[in-house]
Amino acid sequence: MDDTANKTEGPVFLHDSYLAWCDEQPVPVIDDFGIDLMRVETKPWDRYGMNGAVCLLKGRDDFVSIFCFELAPGSKSRPMHHIYEEIVYVIDGHGSTQIELPNGDKHAFEWGRNSLFSVPLNAKYQHFNGSGTEPARLASVHDLPFLMNLFRNEDFIFDTERDFAERYGPNGYFQGEGQMIEIRPGRHQWETNFVADITNFELKAWAERGKGSSSLRWVLSDCTLGCHTSQIVPGTYKKAHRHTAGTNVFTIDGEGYSMLWYEGKEDEMVRVDWDHGVVVTPPENMFHQHFNTGNTPSRYLAVQFGTVRYPMITAKLDKWTSGNDTSVNEGGNQIEYEDQPANLHKIWLDEIDKNKIPSEMGEIFDEEKIRAGN
Fold it and tell me: Do residue 87 and residue 70 come from a single domain?
């Protein structure tokens, strides 16, 4: 697509070049509140040499979107490079990615289910499925919407020859080595290009976000796409919070659900039960709260435009300056346990009682009284 807007008849008005580009692609375009990437239909996508689908979440912003890619057994993608940034989360399967640097050096790393990585900006790369019998599924979170609407030129985005050596990091970053950057709870970061398994990586305590809560931010290829992994231990749940649109939340593992609602519309809550591969993007300023109902820790991955290193927009700068663990009563975006909608704890208690999971929230709530309906 080269300047799609100029190919339309008549005056150009309220045109979205990214959505127009998506409509031209030979793959399904799915538009929904939540999307199950394990089961979404994919079709051949010659540009990438993989099967794919465009996933448009209702709560997306103007900067970031998602592709779901499937590598057939024993197959490989096209060799490619592009000037949009991309975070890849491995939904299922195993394989490898090879990256070629301008000096001809090649780095390859093997990934599996729940791996997380980013190819440095405009570096040449190729994906390989390591199984001869099973497909592999990859979620690509990228800022192509922003760049396509800015440049409106497909060839420029995919065929520009420009090296960004400052994005590569030390060679060990391609093998999962990294650096821990200690700042404060909720801001601690691990900088690398590749994380082999985000389900077992040690997170850092962040009690302000909920009882037993822990989290860690990932800095991947020094890019402007921010992501973090959070954990909820059994018998607990997170505090409700809200933020700008465009934070894509992937269920990694565990058993539970999330509740979403707008302020003043607590009687119109939306419930999303977790399943590996499901991604939900809460719309602008929609409160959401995550509940663990199983006997193992639950983790999720959130990916968005802007990082604590490069906020990119004023709203993110304000959010990460004041802290997104500040109560709404103090001008923040978090609802403390004592202020949350009254029915939420009872709903959760019923769930864990059914699963015979003991509550760890008794020091916060009078659970005997709540169970009795008082």
Answer: yes
Asked if residue 61 and residue 161 are part of one domain, the reply reads yes
Question: Which CATH number does the domain housing residue 245 bear?
Answer: 2.60.120.10
Query: Structurally, how many domains does the chain consist of?
Result: 2
Q: Is 131 among the domain residues? A: yes
Asked if residue 68 lies in contact with residue 97, where contact means CB atoms within 8 angstroms, the answer is no
Q: What residues make up the domain containing 322?
A: 179-354
- Inside any domain, residue 365: no
pLDDT of the chain along its 374 residues, tens only? 555 444 556 899 999 999 999 999 999 999 999 999 999 999 999 999 999 999 999 999 999 999 999 999 999 999 999 999 999 999 999 999 999 998 889 999 999 999 999 999 999 999 999 999 999 999 999 999 999 999 999 999 999 999 999 999 999 999 999 999 999 999 999 999 999 999 999 999 999 999 999 999 999 999 999 999 999 999 999 999 999 999 999 999 999 999 999 999 999 999 999 999 999 999 999 999 999 999 999 999 999 999 999 999 999 998 888 767 899 999 899 999 999 999 999 999 999 999 999 999 999 999 999 999 87
Residues 166 and 193 in one domain: no
Instruction: Kindly state whether residues 161 and 231 are assigned to the same domain.
Output: no
In this prediction the pTM is 0.95
**Does one domain contain both 199 and 220?**
yes
Judgement on whether residues 16 and 74 belong to the same structural domain of the protein: yes
Residues 163 and 210 in one domain: no
